[in-house]
Specification:
By secondary structure, this protein is mostly helical. Helices cover about 60% and strands about 0% of the residues.
Length: about 130
């Protein structure tokens, strides 16, 4: 799939916020939001999370089949397409560990795809007046 740089960044950031939300007790208890926790991190801490997820997600996102994405919609893939793309990049893990990695990574890719912004029409580029 051909994603733009902005779409890949948004997907990776959305997945990182989801991982952060699952690890942060204050977010799970509703004391703060994932966005607030993300903003509270230093740039290096954000980099560490994004770097760790990038090696897992980016090859899978790029390996997804090409689909036509209408303007104003997000790309959508079937569970089988996502699972196939993840399985191709799992490596030589075997047994229960492979199954657990597969399920976890498929879920992470789905979260990343939900974070991709709707596709914009490149011909209808609107430049703000202040520029």
């Amino acid at each position: 799939m051909r994603f733009t740089e902005h779409e890949l960044t948004a997907a990776l950031t959305g997945a990182a916020k989801s991982v952060l939300a699952s690890q942060d007790r204050d977010i799970r208890k509703g004391r703060r939001t994932a966005d607030a926790a993300w903003e509270a991190l230093t740039k290096f801490e954000r980099f560490q999370i994004l770097d760790g997820l990038g090696g897992q997600l980016l090859p899978v996102l790029v390996g997804l089949p090409d689909v036509e994405v209408p303007v104003g919609e997000r790309p959508s893939f079937t569970d089988a397409q996502i699972t196939t793309a993840v399985e191709e990049r799992l490596g030589d893990e075997r047994g229960v560990r492979r199954k657990a990695l597969l399920v976890a990574r498929v879920a992470l890719v789905k979260v990343a795809l939900l974070s991709v912004p709707p596709r914009q029409d490149p011909d209808a580029l609107i430049v703000p007046d202040h520029l």
